[in-house]
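Deliverable D4.2, example record:
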Amino acid sequence: MKINPLYKNKAFGTVLMLFGILGMSLIVYRLCVYRFEYDPEYSPVDYGKYNIISYFTVQSNFFGYIYLILNALAVFGVKKLQKTAFSPLFGALATTYILIAGIVYCAGIPMGFTPPFKWDNAYHFMQSFIQVYYHMIMPVFIVVIWFFPSSNEKIPAKKAWLFGIYPLIYSVFSIMRGAVGKMHYYPYPFYEPSFFWNMIFPGREISFIPAYLLMAPMLCLGIGLFIATGLLIIFIHNKRIKAYEKA
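Output generated by the structure prediction step:
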């Protein structure tokens, strides 16, 4: 495995470390500094401060921060971590999950699916900054990093199906948790059976078995999005490797 000279540059490693540590710090901050504010549209129920871990965005960002920190340590010379840190599949997974989390969130802003940003006091400022960091800064940063592959190791396109495993497990768990859990909590509205039902059959009383059957093809489309995005990320990686080899 031939290492990209950029991944031997300590300044580059410092940037990776700073982004990773800041992200980890924001997760810790959110867990420690929590205040429920009732909102009939976005926050009608207090699900507790640890509920933040239920969000795909937080989980995918956490995965991404681990990826950045391991890469930084490898850049700093921790050779035992290089095989894992510079694994292109590891990076492709982290990039795909964070990118889709950011795209879905930003797409939901004009549709009214996400609460508006508030900057009127210190608490709201931090809450809004965290959302911006998770959904706008990190997706852009990690995609930019992806254009500079750490090694000349290619990713076989046939491995793209692996990108759908975690989202599938997460989705099934979230749907089941909402259905049988005491508080019937769904981290995202599209996991609730009434979401698509009301879109297609507005005003009609929900029938749960058909509603869940209606969710199945939507779930398949969602998993397909992860696999398709994974293929794109793999394509970019392999193309960039060819460009480096010709240079």
